[in-house]
Every structure is written in C-alpha cells, then in structure tokens.
Amino acid sequence: MAASKFYLMEAVNLFAGDHDPSNSKHLTLEEFKLPDLQEMFQEHMAGGAAVQVEFAVGIQKLESTFKLKGFDPELLTQFGLGSKKLTRFTGYGVMRDQRSGEAIQSIATIEGRLGKVAPDAYKRGELNGDEYGINQIMHYELSFGGRELIYFDWFTNTMRMNGVEQNAETNQMLGIRG
Q1: Pairing mode, if any, of strands 29-33 and 7-16?
Q2: What is the tens place of the pLDDT at every residue in 116-157?
Q3: 115 touches 80 (CB < 8 A)
C-alpha cells in the first residue's frame, strides 16, 4: 500500500507577460489564486418524477486573481482597453512533500485579459498595493512535477484532465481539429 502524500505550497512567483526578468513579480507578490473549477448544473423536475435532479451542462468561466504590494506602472498598462490582446501569466510554485521533503515544481499558465485593478486605500505606515483580476481566460494549463493535470484551450475546444482529452468524441463528430 502506497503511503499517503501531503503537499504544501511554500513559494510562488508570477510572470506577467513574457519571461523577461523585469516581468517577475517575486518581490511584490503577496497572493496568487488559481481559477476555481466549477461545473454548471441545470435543475429538472420531471412531470412524473418524485425527486428533482440536476444535470451537468458545462463549466463556469475561469477567473484568477493576484495581489501585489507597491505600485506597478508597467502592469497597469496591460489593463483592459489599453491592451487589445491576451496576456500570458505564468505562475511557478514550489510544493514540498511533507513526508519525504522533496520539492516539486507546479506551473500554471493563464492567457487572459487583465480585467481588474483594485488599489488598496493608502494608510500611512502600511504597505499598500493592488489586487488584480484575470478575466476572459481563453487558455489555462496546470502541471505538477511535470505531469499535466489540466489543459484548456477555448480556441481549439481542447479540455484535458490528467492528460485525457474530454472533448475528443464531440470534436471528432463536429469536425473540429485542435
């Protein structure tokens, strides 16, 4: 029987845009939240049924947030209508296996629009910063120790979970080639 594993995140970095060192947020990153995975359900109460049921009908839109301390004028220029294209955000994490002490890299790649900038109120003697929201996520990847856990690409209708394509049958029947 395999021993149970317990992993804890101990460090994170985020690149906003390409991997130019000036785009690294390791000095200012306070918080980084991956998108929630939430199915959408539709309720149905059949006329002759005694119990209502619900059916999975899709997955809700993906959104991600992060919070930086200080002011980042370069990142601010990527907000909303200031940029007409999607921005690639790449998060790197160091996960630690609590039993073995092994460090494992996790990588999240998100392509979307910087759709929210919410500044903290200034208060003398305290660090202020901004909370950012990534909206219109069209591409999302999450890997752990080199193993693909999630791969989503809206343009190709690709959705892989643990390396298994979830839309293969549908895409084949609809003539969609990814």
Answers
A1: unpaired
A2: 999 999 999 999 999 999 999 999 999 999 999 999 999 999
A3: yes
Report which of 8, 9, 10 is spatially closest to residue 98, judged by C-alpha positions: 8
Distance CA 15, CA 90 (A): 5
Establish how many alpha carbons lie within 13 A of residue 154's alpha carbon, considering only the half-sphere containing its beta carbon: 13
The two structure tokens encoding residue 97: 């296996």
Residues 131, 116: contact at Cβ < 8 Å?
Answer: yes
Residue 114: pLDDT band (50, 70, 90) is very high
